[in-house]
Design brief:
The chain has 167 residues and is an alpha+beta fold. It has one domain. Helices cover 42% and strands 25% of the residues. The chain has two helices and four strands. Strands 1-2-3-4 form a four-stranded antiparallel β-sheet. A hairpin with a 2-residue loop joins strand 2 and strand 3.
Amino acid sequence: MTVKLNNNSNKTKASKLQTKQQGSALMLSLFIIIVLTLLGTTLVKVLSTSSEAIAQEVIGTRALMAANSGMQAELYVLFPLATDAAIPQPIGTCNASNTHGLPASGSDIPGLYHCSASTTCDLYHTQDLVNYYRLTSTGECGSSAIAADSKGVVRSSRTIQVEARSL
């Protein structure tokens, strides 16, 4: 008894199997490209958000320093240094509101460019010849020149408050 093997049928099955697998490498590479593109886009977005947060933090710190500078200037106006031995603790004037000009550019205070500071002083109580003052200072800084029509400028504002009394 002889068995005849059909080689044509094995070849046909192999060619059908190969035909079904054609293009799978293309689909796999396309999938990998899409995944890597999404990962890259996400990484760029995270880095961009991170740098914006750092810029906002730096500008916020500059605004706080501008508010501190305005407060120091206002305290100096309210409590000037004694120049006369007859008046050991002189009292200055309490300005209702005051704007302290900070330089827009130059070589004096580079950390406070594009910043402004405004202060208010309120004499809110007097008792036994002792005056009680409430001083408020607001510092505002921007990433570039602060103007009414400027767009796309990162701005930050910080406010500090001090209560003081005369001696």
